[in-house]
Amino acid sequence: MSMLKKSLTTVAVTGALLGGAFATPAAAADSKTCPSGKVCGWSGTNRTGHRTVLSVTPGCETFTGARSVSNQTSYRIEFWHITPGTGCGVGSRLVTLQPHTYSDNVHGTATGIAVWGK
Fold first, then answer.
1. SS3 of the chain: helix, strand, coil, percent, to 5
2. Tens digits of per-residue pLDDT, 22-50?
3. CB atoms within 10 A of CB 85
4. Among the four 30, 44, 60, 75, which has the fewest Cβ within 10 Å?
């Protein structure tokens, strides 16, 4: 193999390796995980479908309909199927998650959350 072909081959291989290295962080973003310090909900069970990511503080909030949920905060969080127009805590409590836990099936659709202080 000529010196020119060896050089071109080396450049091509190096470029492919570097291109893969730069693409890895974007490819590593996993839609089934929830970032640290956040609450996440997925439209499907087993952390599938559309993912919603929230920053929360103690209190009550509406929540996008979720069938699986993750609590990556330091708070205890109750997930509710709230009765429309009534506010938090009225309806059916589906699951309570301690900090840094998740549920792959909340046996209903979570439409509200109660965030309890530390």
1. 20, 40, 35
2. 333 433 467 889 999 999 999 999 999 99
3. 6
4. 30
